[in-house]
Amino acid sequence: MTRSVTQGPLQLPIFGSIFQIGSRPHLAFTRMAATYGQVYQVFIGTKPVIIVNGYRAMKEALLGNGKDFASRPMFESLGYLSDGMSMAFGEYSKVWEVQHKVAIAAVQAIMTDKQYRMDDTISTETDKLVQDLIKNGKSEVDPMSHIYESISQITFKLCYGDIGTDAPVKRLLQANHDLTEFQIEGNPIDFMPWTKKLLKNKFNKYTEDCDYMMNVCAKLEYGRMEEHKVNPDATQKTCGALDAIISAYKKLSDEERETDGLTTGHILHITQDFLGAGSHAVAYTLSWCILYMIKYTQIQDKVRDEITRKNGGNIKDCEHLRDFPYTEAVIHEVFRHASSVPLALPHSTTTDTFVHDKKIPKGTIVLANLHSLHNDPDVWETPEEFNPGRFLDDNGNIIRSRINMVKPFGMGKRKCTGEILGRYEVFRVFTRLVQKIKFHQIEGHTYDITPRFGLALKPKDFPARISAISSE
Ligand code: HEM
């Protein structure tokens, strides 16, 4: 029998339920599920939003009825990204399907085709990060800022190739950082448009950053497209995701290229989605990994021991992670426990649909609470505990079925396009850092793992002392 969706907490005019939701929405939404069930509606400002919690409901919505939940809401602030042509924030449409096909092919290419030098880029930049941390960390260092800077460089180079780190690139990476922070800090403008006046200065800075990023990136993108026309071997010397995107575009059928509404911009600006989506999520996940290793030093030692014992840390590819069961368990426990993108990106329904027999009308905003999935008591024993051992059997082997229940990249049609790259970067950089550096606590500092809230959760600043590990 079809029922209407349960109403969540009382809502006030204009504000909706924002006071009950508070500053950590993923926790409030998880708590509310105990009262209102796994699927319920809240008002955020003036907008009705369906919250989907827990493993079963999320699987039913995003996998079972994937197409029905595959769109994104058209928020005002998102229209400034990539001149309104962003794939990550685009509506589910034929245009998005073509963008998605190109994006997946490009990620696959940079992961497998040596000309994109993905591995060299990651190793070179990670070695610089190691040196940087060692140089600065004898007394006290802030690992997160160094990790962020390094991952931004890696992401930029993976996207556009190595074009040098001159002023426009630095300014570009700063703009990318600032505009994403504006979004991920929980920008209220899209839910309560009247806050735009109050946040005028912040919003203006945000739109300026979007324009700056668009101008610099579009110049690189259209310039590279022209090079490809003149010299089909252009990828030989440049080699970034942008080249892989152009190559994948060329391989589309005529029918796909002529999709109604599709422009060259929709394709080229996928690179900007990669730059935006790639930097923050990877940098924050890695920062969480290091924070947990500082807090749980015995786990840090066990990871290092496994890497050193197995092969001196000479890691070849993502599949190789399977040779490091303890390390794989630790990374997945960080993915689960930190849930660094707790509410995924906002979804919206493409048609009238159902979850748990509850009717959800077309065009409704839906938030998939990945945090609740990662803390679902039906799936996880003592979910609040940080315990990598939950993924290991008595012989220390990985329990694959449990690993597969961890969903930091989301599920279904809109799940992270960069998942294989993201996983690889986290694995590669994390193992290198732990192999080369011992992270020590600073006496007197409490290593608090309560995050700062945002679309992506960031740890609070944490200091560390660092000592180099000399043997290979
Ligand atoms: C540890 C690293 C990463 C994590 C945890 C992560 C997580 C996520 C999540 C949760 C989503 C939203 C899924 C949804 O709405 O249901 C997403 C979307 C996305 N991510 Fe990632 N991501 C990571 C790395 C990357 C990287 C390296 C790239 C770039 C190559 C990337 C590109 C994207 C794109 C383009 C989307 C939008 C997909 C779409 O709407 O079609 N991500 N990511």
UniProtKB/TrEMBL annotation:
Record carries keyword Metal-binding: yes
Instruction: Tell me which species this is from.
Output: Owenia fusiformis
Which positions bind heme?
416
Reported EC number(s) for this entry are: 1.14.14.1
- Keyword match Oxidoreductase: yes
GO molecular function terms attached to this record: heme binding; iron ion binding; steroid 17-alpha-monooxygenase activity
Q: Which domain of life is it from?
A: Eukaryota
GO CC annotations on file:
endoplasmic reticulum membrane
Q: What class of enzyme is it?
A: oxidoreductase
Where found in the cell? Answer: Endoplasmic reticulum membrane; Microsome membrane
Pfam families per the record? p450
Q: Which cofactor does it need?
A: heme
Name of the molecule in the record: unspecific monooxygenase
Q: Which UniProt keywords apply?
A: Endoplasmic reticulum, Heme, Iron, Membrane, Metal-binding, Microsome, Monooxygenase, Oxidoreductase
**How is this protein positioned relative to the membrane?**
Peripheral membrane protein
